[in-house]
Here is the input.
Amino acid sequence: MEFDIQALLLNILILLFFLLFIPLILEQCNTSNKKKKFFMLISVNLAIISCISFPVIETGGKIFDLRYVATIIGGLYGGIPASISIWIVTVTYRIFFGGDGIILNVLIASMHFAFLIILFKKFTYSSKIKKLIIGTGYSIVTSMLTVAFIGWYINEAMLYLGFTYMISLSITVLLIIYITEIMNETSRLKIRTEKMDLVSQLASSISHEVRNPLTVVRGFLQLMSQVDLTKEKRDEYLKISIEEIDRANNIIKDYLSFAKPNSIKTELLDVNQELSRSLDVITPLANMNSVSIKTNINTSFIYGEKQLFQQCLLNIKKNCIEAMPNGGTLEIESKEFYDQVVISISDTGIGMTEEHLNRLGEPYFTTKGKKGTGLGMMSVFRIIESMNGTLHITSELQKGSKFSIQFPKIKNNESFEVAATSSDQS
Ligand code: ADP
Ligand code: MG
Here is the structure.
């Protein structure tokens, strides 16, 4: 039995390269999320293949290496598709590599597969600290199981080696989760900066829309000061005035709840309620552009951060309205489809060419010249990704565009703890 410290360091280097450096590079690229996910999957599997190729401990045909770090990170962040591909690659490559630890390898890989699929959801909706605890705890428990398994198989207690293996595997997992979370926070910060643009751009349409009811109410008050007014007329004026004030109040309330920096927390969101809220805020802009709004929204539940979700909806709706300079219809629908909630937002505007469609989400891509920032769709993509959703866009020139967002549906009674993190994440 031989312990190779150089191979251990090499394993750690391989893992840092494939699990941190490659994601960092991908983050900087302007590729679509689908492609990023695909490249990440390849990267994780390359990490596994490289680790198996440089065993840290070799004992009677059985090899120890840090491949399960990649299995754990890939499974926790990538979910079921990642876990499936990792299982296939681990088992196939290990068979190709030979030796008599193959059966054990299949068993251990399957154990990870089963556990990680169960843990994935819980992990995804946890705070940074909880993610660290889950990842490290899981690594300690499963590496102890692995050592016990192999020790039993070769009939030899491997206390010292087992302990070293467990410690190095768990610390590497801890380190990688920690740095990944820091990288994710930086990406959030970019989204928050973009929000300030949106807040200021919406302000003028909102203030315009709130001035109208004020004028209306002032007119009615003047009318009501006439002495010879019948009771019916007076009641009617009163009713209209109250309605107008309520409407203005709703707009301001929803706008402010979006604009003020709130604490960031993942919670159960009622799609119906959130869509109505964002409608209050965007209607003034639609009115200013003679855009009529059609809705067909239903109650469904998803997990997410309220303000980020609002930002995503507002960005898409604002783009749609801006694509209809001569007026048109903005249509908003939500429905459940199997285990997904599908929200579709469509316009009857100018549409996009194939080339523009492909560039959507690229930072600073805009066709609006000085008026555009080219950051809206970038935020939309990131927010939807952070909520484990997908965005599908179709568009036809001079006909309009349709944005379909899919999120995993949460049953109202499905209550696993959701982490609340404070607004000032460092
Ligand atoms: P901005 O709105 O500041 O230009 P975005 O990232 O929100 O930046 O959008 C990028 C580009 O995508 C827009 O400039 C526009 O060309 C195109 N686009 C986005 N949404 C639509 C839409 N609904 N209809 C047509 N083009 C759109
Ligand atoms: Mg925009």
